[in-house]
Amino acid sequence: MSFQIREAITTNVTGDSSAVFSETINDAIARGEEHLLPGLGVFLEAWWKDASENERNAFTSKLEKHFVS
Prior knowledge:
Order of helices and strands: HHHH
Number of helices: 4
Radius of gyration: 14 Å
Distance between the termini: 42 Å
Strand content: under 5%
Oligomer: single chain
Shape: globular
């Protein structure tokens, strides 16, 4: 049996409003449970595909600042 996590997550959130997405993301972060990370990854992948080069650069700059050693 092949389980496609991207497809499952996409199916579960199709039609959700921006408010629901915000609630879902905030809940996943607040709960801090490892099994929720793939879902956040699917959200990031979808965002990345639609983001402009400027949006991507701003995002990766924020990550760089957050994970500075």
